[in-house]
Amino acid sequence: MTERNKKQIQLVVQGMTCTDCERHVSHALQSVGAENISISFRRGETTFELFNLDLLDEVKQAIAKTGYQPGEAEVINERQHTDTKKSVHYDYDLLIIGSGGSAFSAAIQAVSYGAKVGMVERGTIGGTCVNIGCVPSKTMLRAGEINHLATHNPFQGLNTSAGSIDIVQLIARKNELVGELRQHKYIDLIEEYGFHLIQGEARFVDASIIEVDGRKMTAQNFLISTGASPAVPNIEGLKNVDYLTSTTALEVKELPKRLAVIGSGYIAMELGQMFHNLGAEVTLMQRSARVLKAYEPEVSEAITKALTDQGMNIITNATFKRVEQDGTTKRVYLTVNGHEQVVEAEALLIATGRTPNTEALHLQAAGVKMGDRGEVIVDEYLRTSHPQIYAAGDVTMGPQFVYVAAYEGAIVAENTVGGGHKKVDLTVVPGVTFTSPAIATVGQTEAEATSAGYEVIASVLPLEAVPRALVNRETTGVFKLVADAKTRKILGAHVVAENAGDVIYAAVLAVKFGLTIEDLRSTLAPYLTMAEGLKLATLTFDKDVSKLSCCAG
Fold this sequence. Notes:
Elements: E1 7-14, H1 19-31, E2 35-40, E3 45-50, H2 56-65, E4 69-75, H3 77-82, E5 92-97, H4 101-112, E6 117-121, H5 127-132, H6 134-151, H7 167-193, E7 196-199, E8 202-206, E9 209-212, E10 215-224, E11 228-230, E12 258-262, H8 266-277, E13 281-285, H9 297-309, E14 313-315, E15 318-326, E16 329-336, E17 339-345, E18 347-350, E19 354-356, E20 389-391, H10 402-416, E21 431-433, E22 438-443, H11 446-451, E23 456-462, H12 467-472, E24 478-484, E25 490-497, H13 500-512, H14 517-521, H15 532-539
Parallel strand pairs: 5-6, 5-10, 6-7, 10-20, 12-13, 12-18, 13-14
Antiparallel strand pairs: 1-3, 1-4, 2-3, 8-9, 9-10, 11-19, 15-16, 16-17, 21-22, 22-25, 23-24, 24-25
């Protein structure tokens, strides 16, 4: 018989746990005449060729005799023999450009499927989160919070104070933490999982070849995981000013007496409050009428009150005219509600969003389409406009959270080398802003739910109705729940409170699994926890909780 008569089979085999298991299955396949055998215990499957499909039952019986469980079989040779890419040798099954959250998640998952994986990194391994984002900013935020509490604790009779701040030592300790986590959570895993790290700048030559510093390499599939960088707005004079970004703000050598911040999103508020808590006079400026304009109005109102009560200045409805620098003094010229205004500061922080890192990739050579902001456009399977090239994480300008990036990276691995066809689902993504009080949200706002066609009911619980907030003597905040009036299912939850990020996970489960107002009401919420606010907010749909006893539900 000719090669064309061979049938290539993909067969699920359950029960394999190691390479010895692969050898046992291989011997069983050979005993009934199978050829060109490939087995992966990690994927739980084998591919092989038979001249006669009637032998498939014998194949399954032979495997079963070895103690493993054969499952579904699929004939794939018609596709394989006519698909020229299968006969081409590639350097890698999956080649990842970038080394952040989505990159490592994809690499680890792909290796578990038995794939040969490469990872290209032009700079520091680990991406945004561990190096210049989540980890360094949150440890510095905690330092600022402790300093602020030492000088502004809310308890009469408790006399606390704080000494001078050694910002150089704080930064050094922050860098030590970053270095440790980068080593243990990223660098050490390269050898642990056995994928290849290639240092250098990657650019596409075509859809199957990239060049890294003059060296060409091929891959059957690519993942673009290059992340994003701070965006800089087009304001007259800004390019001639020494300004800070979210990256450089965490490396300052001395604390400014005054800090002006252009932007008032989550990065602006977190870093602005950090500097405020370390002793700077901080002014946040933004174009929109309120901070966090996409959030619930009650959330914006609560965090604005909290930050202004703490002494921060917030300017809204601003039009930025120009920026100037005179010595070490920066001046931002504004028009606010028709009136001219000038904000002076020793430091200027630009926190107006992020822009995807795609410029150096030469994506047009690979036929990969980008959006207006330079982001890589992907479909629901995270494929780009070229079917062998995928993208995940911040480079797509989706929700910019490391846990979203990691989730997407794992999906890419499954879809490229794991034989999957899995869609990304970002309908229930929690978001946390680590201010004090913190902001946490999940699901739809009242306006979003209404636009989606729901008949909406909502409850708004001021934080002063939550016993934990009362004993903390920190009562500025809010719990808001959005629900479907017909089914009573929770559609969204929005919290401004201490530990809001910890509280929100219960709401994530409620939204994702369609729990109702009554479902949450029927639970026992531990007293004197902030999480109790979620249950109290469900009571607020029908009752005035201020007229209930402490633990009544």
